[in-house]
């Protein structure tokens, strides 16, 4: 009996002794509920003809009308394929660069130089999208843009890449790589730092070259992180960087640059079609979830690494 | 362990729920307070006799106050502007301004209306595009109040305005005759014929050319601009004969120029024909016009930067060569390519060009311009609508308009005898430039969001110098616009054949605006493709597929809804 009560008291005290942890948990939980779960309530306007005056639940119910409109829209095929192509290519293109950078920084003997390189490649990440795009437009400007000035030196005519539908994807993806590589390398560097030095020493004793060490020690040790990151990014394929696309967009390159999110912006904000754009947004999220689950399932089968 | 976590998360959830419940309670009690004051209003009306006699200042001997929500347009600060301070002294009413950034204005209005947490007055509702349909919805919810009686009891100037021009009442009332919003009145002569083209007359002079009057002459002028050293800086290759910019007021390429081929309003691509609305961007004549634009592009007369550069970029390019302008001509509603320089003085407004059939034409926007519908509403939260009506009524008078122009001797002066106005009659006043060290420099008036009245008399009564290029005047561009517009007015469509703001039925409103955006986007894009050659305007196949695409997008449904609304307008 005595023992039991004693145990109970301990139990309670133990629970209370963690109160700081629970307190720390509180803000994110509140945040999630208010900003992530509560808005789900508003999703119903995708099935209604929403008018702000009538409110979420008061607006008339129209079922799948907005989805039908979107699927039968002239724009639908182009929007979806533009979105998927842009998202997929930039996802694939953005994977190898940070890995290569991280491996070379990790293998570099000149620690100071490696640190400097890391810092310099990391810096572009902090440039805001608006500034980045104006840098790009300045660089590619027909009049006095660096790109065309150099072409002029080489005796070539100036070209307006910004208005060329074929150039939109390379511009978008290359500027993305320039901006994101340094940042992306950090997580790989962190996992490379966790590799036991014993492995390297053993490899060195066995006479492994630096390339062999990278091939057999470094790469396998960061592979799980690579896969996990790739899977997580698949969820965002369809949410291609909206701001950057919108800022780089003009009437001339619409055929490749018009993606779902810019269309939602034009229709939803531009002409106040809240319900229609919510329906498209919901479709967007569903496709994202499906993609994520598919890739996750595939990766589980193929590499035995997965999110869940 | 698991159980414990579950229990704790349950406690957390409950805490959160209770807290959100509490905040919910806070809101309800607030609204009920609002309701209470709303109810009290009737009782207070008896005591509203604190107001002085109608038409006298101050409005009340006791200090009064009410709140106005307003979007931040431009850089002026309504809370500190001259008119705010001076009018507060004059009326003994101080305004509690709720200034909302312009880009979140739409959301803010929606939120305020949905939550019931209302300011007394909302100004700039026209920016929110409050359609008559939406207005009625707000009214039915009891969020905004009917103003007929309020106007009747508390207005002298606005009532007179409506008496003088019955069209105003027709435009601001609902079908049953009730009025829920006050308009701004801005008689803007040049806005009515705003699909204009500017041309560099200095270049014409340099090359010894006449002002073109037909589309063929215009083509030859562009050619001369391109081939010769039109700006006289020694380099014959830096001239850009014709450039438009992406976005802006009537900067479309198929606006001004298309009218030499067929009537074209580049905003809607609709026209009235035999009392019905038709779509003009699919006709054979329109195709001829696009062929012309395509020819200009192929021959390097039309700059490819027209589709990517925005106004600011183009403005910088045009002044990048010192006194030598870069642009020969550009379509726009008003001068934009000058900055602080005098480059704009090189340009004249090109009169409408005659086509092969010898006819020139241009759209008439009179029906959608003069009355800024839905400028200001009074909400149910307002304690004293009478006071608010009296407060705003002053600005519907000529005296009130001058008051908002600024201080006599600083922002304006009385015209001297013999000084002529825009209309060639004796002028009333002349605008002056506020000194740079004045505390109110650049911050005189509330924005246009607070209803104003720019009458014809006010607009045209300002002193207009004989030469708009005169360096001593501040309103040169306006004088140029006024005079340049004469040639447009002469050939413009009649008001009877112009399109008013269409009041679409509420159940069709969302389909309508979606169709409108999609069709417009597609048409814009196809036009650019035809001009630049990625679609071939000379190929019947490309042209037919353009028309089929438009049909598939619902052009017919769009026209049907438009036509129904138009017939409703005609029968009103």
UniProtKB/TrEMBL annotation, chain A:
Pfam families: BPD_transp_1. Gene3D superfamilies: MetI-like. Its main location: membrane. SUPFAM superfamilies: MetI-like (SSF161098). It is a multi-pass membrane protein. Keywords: Cell membrane, Membrane, Transmembrane, Transmembrane helix, Transport. The chain crosses the membrane at residues 21-40, 84-107, 119-141, 171-195, 216-238, 274-298. Belongs to the binding-protein-dependent transport system permease family. The lineage of its organism: Bacteria, Bacillati, Bacillota, Clostridia, Lachnospirales. Signal peptide: none annotated. GO terms for biological process: transmembrane transport. GO terms for cellular component: plasma membrane. It comes from the Bacteria. This is Sugar ABC transporter permease. Residues 80-295 form the ABC transmembrane type-1 domain.
From TrEMBL, chain B:
InterPro entries: Bact_solute-bd_prot1, SBP. Coiled coil: none annotated. Residues 25-45 are annotated as: Disordered. Keywords: Signal. It comes from the Bacteria. Residues 1-25 form the signal peptide. The keyword Signal applies. Pfam families: SBP_bac_1. Residues 26-36 have a biased composition (Polar residues). PANTHER family: ARABINOSE-BINDING PROTEIN-RELATED, DIACETYLCHITOBIOSE BINDING PROTEIN DASA. This is ABC transporter substrate-binding protein. The lineage of its organism: Bacteria, Bacillati, Bacillota, Clostridia, Lachnospirales.
